[in-house]
Amino acid sequence: MTFWRLEVFEELASTSTLCAERARAGETAGLAVLALRQSAGRGSRGRAWQAPAGNLNLSVLLRPQRPAAEAGMFALLAGVAVAEALETLTPLTVTLKWPNDVLLDQAKLAGILIDAVPSGTWLDWLVIGIGINLREAPKIEGRRTTALGEHGIEQNPHMMANAVLERLAHWQDASAEAIRESWLSRAHVIGTKIEIQTGAKLLQGSFAGLSPAGELLLQSENRIEAISTGEVLLGPS
Question: Which positions ≥6 away from 228 have C-beta within 8 Å?
Fold first, then answer.
């Protein structure tokens, strides 16, 4: 189990950028960086991630002894850890959307960003960036967002960070199968109609589970396709 070295900053451009810089400089696993304000956060697919004061901006550095092909599994692992932390500290029940969103009533409550650098076929280091809307929900075009504050729940970033770190430590050495099973137990049900935007292509079908590597399985007509990246839109189950 990792013993975290938590560093807290009043403001940073990006917690993940700092972790990556420290990783390249040889920092050992276990670094955790919490920023109370973040001025240049990064979201998935190159988006900027707004981070109003009072929200959680947390990144951790790992050096997992795992194949580089399993890097995507850490988004699922982090999603499970964040969900468990939220449900430990609040009365809410959240769900997970592939590959990196935590939802409350189908609105985005938290997001996860993975930066992974391989060494040959193995991972050299990996940074998990986690943003949770504690006080205020940033606007994302075309997406519903929410915050704990909108549900009458006040949560301290320090307390939430400690809860997330505890669950990350619990899950970080779990098998890929255990991570997949836990993620699926909190996800959109098998058969949910979905659309996946991958570049200029829009794929349509139904959710058929996860591959052993954590890819989304899309059933379309009479075939199942493994999807490694894309923007997922959920339909009715």
Answer: 72, 213, 215
3-class secondary structure, 92: coil
Domains annotated for the chain, with CATH where assigned, are 5-184 (3.30.930.10), 193-234 (2.30.30)
**DSSP-based three-state secondary structure for 169:** helix
Give the separation between CA 4 and CA 26, rounded to whole angstroms. 16
Burial 162-201 (b: 16+ CB within 10 A, else e): bbbbebbbebbeeebeebbebbbebbbeeebebebeeeee
Nearest Cα residue to 102 out of 156, 164, 60: 164
Average pLDDT for 98-104: 95
Rounded CA separation 224/203 (Å): 12
Cα gap 111→185, rounded to integer Å: 18
pLDDT, tens only, 214-227: 999 999 988 999 99
Is 164 in contact with 157 (CB distance < 8 Å)? no
Res 221: pLDDT: 84
Q: In the β-sheet with 95-97, what is the strand arrangement from edge to edge? A: 5-9, 31-35, 56-62, 122-132, 107-119, 101-104, 95-97
Give first-to-last CA distance, the chain, whole Å: 37
Element (H, E) at 203: strand 201-210
Look up tokens 């696993």; give the residue: 29
